[in-house]
Amino acid sequence: MSAPVFPDLEGASVFITGGGSGIGAALSEGFLRQGAKVAFVGQSDASAFVDRMAAETGNRPLFIKCDITDTAALKAAMDQTASAHGPITVLINNAANDKRHATDEVDEAFWDWSIAINLKAYFFACQTVLPAMQAAGGGVIINMSSVSYMMGNAGYPIYTTANAGITGMTRSLAREFGPHGVRVNALAPGWVMTEKQKELWVTPEALDEQLSRQCVKTPLEPCDMVGPVLFLASDASRAITGQLIAADGGVVVTG
């Protein structure tokens, strides 16, 4: 699937958390093909992905190994990105972990870890990038969420709690920093067929049940998230901020 071209994204300094696998890898590739300067962080080595992107797109991303639950390390990675590519003008908070858990089995340590990766890191990435965006007269933040909390899904209550928090944070930051030209939106994917999802949870029965809920009867792939994110990052969406957009094939409705 070919992504639309947004000329204003060429040369943009883009920072993506979790940009080496799953949806994040598709987003990294999407921005690279726009001619953006892409940096991404992740915990696993992404050297092979970086080399492949350089060969396939002619545009080499900057990979920084980082645990985003370590706030100091995350801020250092963002500072390194700004030094290499110029001030970050597009932030994509994408990294998350939807590890399944039962409410009665959660202890404080698991709660703290899950909130740290699924919500806390989002906030501090925003906090880190906002001064430079204000100084530049504008910027874009896109927070990747999930429709799971809108569906009231069971099986990962801290994850859905964090995703609900992402929506609240998105709206508040959009209101606070809109006067400085900063737009903040959230994109909520549906069930996207990443390698992790297929390895752990996708079965023919589960997929059939999911498709029965979707208006569009096609399994969602990581590339399906690229167009919406590029649109939200581009000036083409300059009138859109403080919004949560569901990209789920039509399972939930918003508004």
Automatic annotation (TrEMBL):
Origin: domain of life: Bacteria
Domain Ketoreductase stretches: 12-191
SUPFAM superfamilies: NAD(P)-binding Rossmann-fold domains
Annotated keywords: Oxidoreductase
UniProt xrefs under SMART domains: PKS_KR
Pfam entry (one): adh_short_C2
InterPro entries linked: KR_dom, NAD(P)-bd_dom_sf, SDR_fam
Keyword field contains Ligase: no
Family: Belongs to the short-chain dehydrogenases/reductases (SDR) family.
UniProt name for this protein: SDR family oxidoreductase
Naturally occurring in which organism (per UniProt): Celeribacter arenosi
